[in-house]
Every structure is written in C-alpha cells, then in structure tokens.
UniProtKB/TrEMBL annotation:
Protein name, as recorded: Glycerol-3-phosphate cytidylyltransferase
A GO biological process held by the record: teichoic acid biosynthetic process
First-level EC class: transferase
PANTHER family xrefs: FAD SYNTHASE
UniProt lineage: Bacteria, Pseudomonadati, Thermodesulfobacteriota, Desulfuromonadia, Desulfuromonadales
Species this chain originates from: Desulfuromonas acetoxidans (strain DSM 684 / 11070)
Length: 128
C-alpha cells in the first residue's frame, strides 16, 4: 500500500483544498493529513475561523482522507514519514522547494494550486 501525507490548516474547506486532497489521494492508496492545530496556526501567523476539532471532523468526512493527525510544529514531518511509513509527501506548489529535505525519506511532489480561491478571498467576499 502506497502511503501519502500532506499538511495544512484546511479552514473553511473549499474546492482548492478538495482538489488538492483528491490529487494527493490519487498518488497512492492511503492519504494522511497533518492538520495544523490552532496553536501551530499561530506559529504560522495564520488564524482559522474554525477550531481544530471542527476542521478535523470536516476533513474526516472527505472521501479522499483516510487519517487526520495533528500538525503541532514544523519539525514533525521527518518523524511522521518514518512513523507512518510514508512513500510520498505532497503539498501545493506555493511551498515549492520548501520540503525538499524530505527527499531522503520519501518522494516529494508539489501539486499546482487552484487559482482564484482562498480562505482569505472567501472571507473578503462574505464581508461584501
Ligand atoms: N491549496 C490549493 N489551492 C488553493 C488553496 C490551498 O491547492 N486555492 C492547497 C495548499 O497548497 C495546501 C493545502 O491546500 O497544500 C492546504 O492549504 P492551507 O490550509 O492554506 O495550508 P498551509 O497553511 O499552507 O499549511 O506544514 C505545512 C503547512 O501546514 C501548510
């Protein structure tokens, strides 16, 4: 079984996230998502509308997602890859090159982002 992992905040799930998850799953047989905790969001200078538990529940309802684990810090990826016997790490190409250090542990694939949609754009639209 080919194991794929990706990480993110996944707040206010939109088609950008869903298309990423769909493509990530298609790279293998099992998709694990490292979901940024509320505390780690603060480290990423990012706040989310929805708390971790709700973002986790929503992700777990997505057909492409097999397991959700907490993402607590920048440094857990190496140990996650070993712990879950990950074959492929994947993430959107807004992170192009940032995680190449994982190449000694697994395949690293950057997927194209979906243009013209983002949580901040949705927030702006809701403000009207
Ligand atoms: N994404 C996308 N298209 C968009 C928006 C997001 O493909 N329009 C992808 C991102 O590239 C990422 C995933 O959806 O792969 C989750 O996006 P975010 O929640 O914004 O993730 P981010 O805050 O970049 O967290 O350790 C890695 C970080 O936790 C990544």
């Amino acid at each position: 079984l080919k194991i794929v992992i990706t990480y993110g905040t996944f707040d206010l799930l939109h088609v950008g996230h869903v298309r990423l998850l769909k493509r990530a799953k298609s790279l293998g047989d099992v998709l694990i998502v490292g979901l940024s905790t509320d505390e780690f969001n603060a480290v990423k200078h990012k706040s989310s509308f929805l708390p971790y538990e709700q973002r986790k529940e929503i992700l777990e309802s997505i057909r492409y997602v097999d397991k959700v684990i907490p993402e607590n810090n920048w440094d857990q990826k190496r140990s996650d890859v070993r712990k879950y016997k990950v074959d492929i790490f994947t993430i959107g190409d807004d992170w192009l090159g940032e995680f190449d250090f994982l190449k000694e542990y697994c395949e690293v694939i950057y997927l194209s982002r979906t243009e013209d949609i983002s949580t901040s754009l949705l927030k702006g639209m809701m403000k009207g």
